[in-house]
Structures are given as structure tokens and as C-alpha cells.
Write a structure and sequence with these properties.
By secondary structure, the protein is of the alpha+beta class. The protein has 2 helices and 4 strands; from the N terminus they run E-E-E-H-H-E. A hairpin with a 6-residue loop joins strand 1 and strand 2.
């Protein structure tokens, strides 16, 4: 099972992917934009995590979001 977690609309937008209980990839938006504390939704970090893990979006079983 794959779980995609995102942190958006708060300081340091980021995403991480857990596959079969192990962290397989993680990425922060500032690494792409070179802007500290980027707090917008971005598909770049999601795409990066999926590419690092070598899976496609349709393989994601759960989606986690830390926004309240």
C-alpha cells in the first residue's frame, strides 16, 4: 500500500511517500523554487515523490494532509 502525505498552505510545503510501511521519498517545494517558507499547493513536490518512488498516482491507496 502507498500513502502520499502533503503539507500545504503552511510554511515549507512538502510531500512524502510511504510504500509498504517505509518512507521511499520526500521533497520540499523550496528545493524547486528557491524561495524559503513557500506555503502554496504544488504538484511539483508530489510529482517528485512519485518519480523518486517509481510509481504512478493511481497506485496511491491513501492521501494524508496535515492541515487543520
Amino acid at each position: 500500500m502507498c500513502v502520499l502525505g502533503v503539507n500545504v498552505y503552511r510554511d515549507e510545503s512538502s510531500a512524502h511517500l510511504i510504500k509498504d510501511g517505509e518512507l521511499t521519498s520526500a521533497s520540499e517545494e523550496e528545493r524547486f523554487r528557491w524561495i524559503k517558507c513557500w506555503a502554496e499547493f504544488s504538484l511539483r513536490v508530489i510529482k517528485s515523490c512519485l518519480e523518486q518512488a517509481g510509481i504512478e498516482i493511481n497506485k496511491i491507496g491513501h492521501f494524508a494532509n496535515n492541515n487543520e
